[in-house]
């Protein structure tokens, strides 16, 4: 008989619920699935409950469903720590990715140094590159036929290219980086470890090079940056660069993929955008709200009450944005995707001190990708005989997304 997952002694029975970010049926790879709807259903239950097994490695965590309670967690960096080792643990080391795995006040020192780097002005300077790359990729797809697997042939290469441009790395290494990103984010432990080493080796080479030959790019900014009146150490530089690699690739590619997945299955919604292209930015916001991909996770630093549940120091607390973004208390008619929704303060980029640093860039990448797509691709659908597969996890996603515009 399978053993029951262990519930810690301090968790009362009425606080225990069933939800596994990786293994609940709707979270497993599912043809034509909708893991977002499954998470939104959690809002029919309590604002906070304990799921005995929910992380990738089978740990239990408190799940916070409502926007209000998620804000209480995510805005309180003193009571809920971001201490984790998502990257360095894969290579048997122990250092934080910066600034994501640091807590205030340490976090703020790095965050204020990094904020200008991804400001709307800096992002605007990258836009011509993003546009040219999107056009090149879409024209490439069209030259090859009337259907394409858009995650590997469009969304991922676009996101990786932008990252490379940002870092100042030539585009000729694009497919090598796409491979590393895929191994790091989607493969088993052995591939993840190998890919983590490759990424680090590469970044270390670049740090050395930019110290010798400064250029006008992100890596040069980092090697010249100061924190508390001293230059960053090589370790700090690589842990910042690693975070941009893991933070900005999967998320952007996934958002583009999920939008195309939705639009491919809803020709009337494509038409709405074709009839009124000016609503694209607000449509992108609405799709970010309806299909946000990330679940921020924290560790309680003290015993406390949250939503009537006893949280104990050391407990994991997770805040799926796909629940809070469908909270009816904040979003009228939350399961309707309304491209003209007003006052759309969705939670895709989280709340509080760790709110996404790359949100301006992410928005621009998604808008440009869809804008160029609509300008070049006629009405499109899921290719007959194929089935896109959705999956849950720390970052939700879709794969095998074969789109046909014949
Ligand atoms: C649609 C795309 C994106 C989504 C949905 C997204 C989502 C998020 C979320 C939810 C967080 C907070 C995590 C937490 O609190 O634990 C976050 C943080 C972060 N994101 Fe994004 N992100 C996206 C794109 C990007 C891009 C393009 C970049 C960089 C180029 C980026 C860089 C970062 C960084 C550096 C942090 C850490 C901020 C801090 O700790 O202060 N993200 N992102």
From TrEMBL:
Pfam families in UniProt: p450
GO terms, molecular function: heme binding; iron ion binding; monooxygenase activity; oxidoreductase activity, acting on paired donors, with incorporation or reduction of molecular oxygen
InterPro entries the UniProt entry points to: Cyt_P450, Cyt_P450_B, Cyt_P450_CS, Cyt_P450_sf
Keywords from the named record: Heme, Iron, Metal-binding, Monooxygenase, Oxidoreductase
Biological role stated in the UniProt entry: Cytochromes P450 are a group of heme-thiolate monooxygenases. They oxidize a variety of structurally unrelated compounds, including steroids, fatty acids, and xenobiotics.
PANTHER family the record matches: P450, PUTATIVE (EUROFUNG)-RELATED
Protein family: Belongs to the cytochrome P450 family.
The protein's name in its UniProt record: Cytochrome P450
Organism from which the protein derives: Novosphingobium sediminicola
Higher taxonomy: Bacteria, Pseudomonadati, Pseudomonadota, Alphaproteobacteria, Sphingomonadales
